[in-house]
Amino acid sequence: MSESARNVVIVGANRGIGLEFVKQYVSSGARVVALCRKASDALRALDCEIIEGVDASDDAIVHNLATQLPVEHIDILIHNAGILKGDSFPDLDFDNMKQHFDVNSLGPLRIILGALTKLGKGSKVGIVSSRVGSIDDNSSSNNYAYRVSKTAVNMVGKCLSIDLKEKGIAVALLHPGYVRTEMTNNSGNIEADEAAAGLIKRMDELSLETSGVFVHSNGESLPW
Ligand SMILES: NC(=O)c1ccc[n+]([C@@H]2O[C@H](COP(=O)([O-])OP(=O)(O)OC[C@H]3O[C@@H](n4cnc5c(N)ncnc54)[C@H](OP(=O)(O)O)[C@@H]3O)[C@@H](O)[C@H]2O)c1
Fold it and tell me: What pTM, to 2 d.p., does this model score?
């Protein structure tokens, strides 16, 4: 498919990996709608349409998002927005845990429900999760709030992949890698541009047949 035919919506687009998604989809010729709470100068400098004031923890977006989107049909929707505030056992803050569940687990569900009337046959949805949400892969513990919220969003995505299949919509759970962004205090193995490039390839590969995958930006299939 020609990139110029694609309408792409990125959520959490103002910095980090989300900003890189916007850059790369724009440079491929796609029409990109960038959703964020507040646009950054870097986002404003890109040739995209920006919708500010979109907070993934706001229930109202379930009802008012579709009317804000300037496209009739979304080809690719990527929910990238997320938070990480570290914790370790036994110093756990339950308000922090609830906030992670609200943003990281329920946020993608709100966005997808809000955009549902614009998703249909051939649409692809990517939810940026994390391999630290993998139960099988967990050998180091800590970050209870973040881990639990990403495990939960994996179930959200898996359920959606089943419920949206008959509408012709494919869903992927995406792990970007360990990426140098504000979230990691700029530690990591790769830069945001490499992570976004890998995830765009994974979205290109995604089909109804593979819907429900949990995949690393490098193409590795991840354990649940
Ligand atoms: N970096 C890594 O190594 C890594 C590894 C695995 C998974 N991930 C996941 O990758 C995604 C992007 O992470 P990143 O590293 O690029 O982090 P980042 O630089 O901290 O960016 C996080 C993005 O999420 C947005 N966001 C946070 N809370 C939001 C809310 N309530 N509503 C709307 N937007 C919100 C932020 O917007 P504001 O500027 O408004 O806060 C920002 O655009 C996250 O889902 C993260 O969990 C990252």
Answer: 0.97
